[in-house]
UniProtKB/TrEMBL annotation:
Cofactor dependency: FAD
Pyridine nucleotide-disulphide oxidoreductase dimerisation domain ranges (all copies): 350-453
Cystine pairs: C43-C48
GO molecular-function terms, A-Z: flavin adenine dinucleotide binding; NAD(P)H dehydrogenase (quinone) activity
Protein name: Dihydrolipoamide dehydrogenase
Catalytic residues as annotated in Swiss-Prot or TrEMBL: H443 (proton acceptor)
Similarity field: Belongs to the class-I pyridine nucleotide-disulfide oxidoreductase family.
């Protein structure tokens, strides 16, 4: 049995763990990075990068089918080769993973420990059967995994999660998607555009990250023009029959239907990877899911020298948030007991559907009723959007009635990923609607639509 003593032990070598390691080392502390699985972040292996590769292929197929409106006619049949699509997805995915692995392997070997860690007490870790680590402080950055509700397990190997999709050798013919959240919408639409018959089912009526009823309804109609989408589906029966998944449900038209699928893609959320950490051996208080209670600003768990960062705390499961939290956790672990609030940027979320969705700042649902005005623009007649035939969309911006300060926005529409950044910067700078309207807007650009929404909000503030 090897014994190791360090200032800071980091469990997990993903985005948050790597950021925590670098932050602790920058403070002059000794640190060890413990990883039980393969190196490579969730984003690179099974998240943002491979999903965008699949989406890029889907966009190419979609654009090729829709050139006639410009007077450009593509002769012949658009042929999608599923094996070629998935081969590129996997090759490029592996390339991105390779960059991450190379970065991790650049960390000194004595600072890397392979194996699964369990707490013996607050600061003593057992790594597999080969090493005990005595740490002054510990950062938990173990990430998360897809959560699979028990009823879906009836499908056996016909059940897949997003991690599995990127290992397909070719595209199936029929896929049912459960969970129209960010991952479900992105993958479901991409598969549909690549020729897969897709049916998407939700339970609560939610869609993506949207909370504004008008924006959500617009998104449901826009996406529903491409594939079957019922965010509040009534599923009557699920079963396995041979190599097929069978689903009986109430169709949007009110009829009862039974359909068969090659796979059922479950995208109903993720759970923090904390079950195997031996947290019962620590002094930490745990919530109902077994996740340590922690301070959202400092990431410290109670008064213990333990910090929880990234997807493992299940708060903001986004790469940039994981990187920020990892840095905060690493710095506070190095400084302990002198812990301080870390950087919290303005909230920003993007869904790479088409049209794209975005949410910035405070959501509609989080705002106190009657305290704000809503500025609106439809992109259906917006100049640049019509030029590009990307004129589906609706944007709502929210402004405080008392101060005129811009509070947040929700949108489905063209170039939402770029507009989201402009608006997130505005939230973080604390700008008012009037100050935002003083900024330059070029012509003709999609961002002129944002100006229209801001002008609408300004008029309501003045009224």
């Amino acid at each position: 049995m090897q014994n190791l003593t360090v200032d800071v032990a980091i469990i997990g070598a993903g985005t948050a763990g790597l950021a925590a390691y670098r932050a602790a080392k920058a403070q002059g502390k000794t640190a060890v990075l413990i990883e039980g699985g393969p190196y490579g972040t969730t984003c690179a292996r099974v998240g943002c990068m491979p999903s965008k590769l699949l989406i890029a292929a889907a966009e190419a197929a979609h654009e090729a089918r829709h050139t006639a409106s410009f007077g450009v006619h593509v002769d012949g049949v658009i042929r999608i080769d599923g094996r070629e699509v998935m081969d590129r997805v996997k090759r490029e995915r592996d390339r991105f993973v390779g960059f991450v692995v190379k970065s991790v392997e650049g960390i000194p070997e004595q600072d890397r420990l392979q194996g699964y860690a369990r707490f013996i007490d607050n600061t003593l870790l057992q790594v597999d059967e080969h090493t005990q680590v005595k740490a002054g402080r510990v950062v938990i950055a173990t990430g998360s995994s897809p959560a699979i509700p028990a009823p879906f397990k009836v499908f056996g190997d016909r059940l897949v999660v997003n991690d599995d999709v990127f290992d397909w050798d070719t595209l199936p013919r029929r896929v049912a998607v459960f969970g129209p959240g960010v991952i479900g919408v992105e993958l479901g639409q991409a598969l549909s555009r690549l020729g897969v018959e897709v049916k998407m089912f939700g339970a609560s009526g939610s869609l993506g990250p949207l909370t504004d009823p008008a924006i959500r309804d617009y998104a449901r109609r826009a996406l529903g023009e491409e594939f079957y989408l019922d965010p509040a589906a009534k599923v009557l029966e699920m079963r396995r029959d041979g190599d097929e998944a069978v689903i009986r449900y109430v169709h949007l038209d009110g009829s009862e239907r039974e359909e068969r699928f090659d796979y059922v893609l479950v995208s109903t959320g993720r759970r923090p990877n904390v079950q195997r950490l031996g947290l019962e051996n620590t002094s930490l208080q745990l919530d109902a899911r077994g996740v340590p209670l922690f301070d959202g600003e400092t990431l410290q768990c109670g008064n213990a020298p333990i910090f929880l960062a990234g997807d493992a705390n299940n708060t903001l499961t986004l790469l940039h948030e994981a990187a920020d939290e990892g840095k905060t956790a690493g710095e506070n672990a190095a400084r302990y007991p002198d812990v301080r609030p870390g950087l919290r940027r303005a909230p920003i979320g993007v869904v790479f559907s088409d049209p794209q969705m975005m949410m910035v700042g405070q959501s509609f649902a989080a705002l106190p009723a009657e305290s704000f005005v809503t500025g609106e623009v439809s992109f259906e007649d917006q100049g640049r959007s019509r030029v590009m035939l990307k004129n589906k969309g609706l944007l709502h911006v929210y402004a405080d009635k008392a101060s005129g300060r811009f509070l947040g926005a929700e949108m489905i529409g063209p170039r939402a990923e770029h507009i989201a950044h402009l608006l997130a910067w505005s939230v973080q700078q604390g700008l008012t609607v009037a100050q935002m309207l003083d900024m330059p807007f070029y012509h003709p650009v999609v961002e002129e639509g944002l100006r229209t929404a801001l002008r609408d909000a300004a008029a309501k503030l003045a009224g």
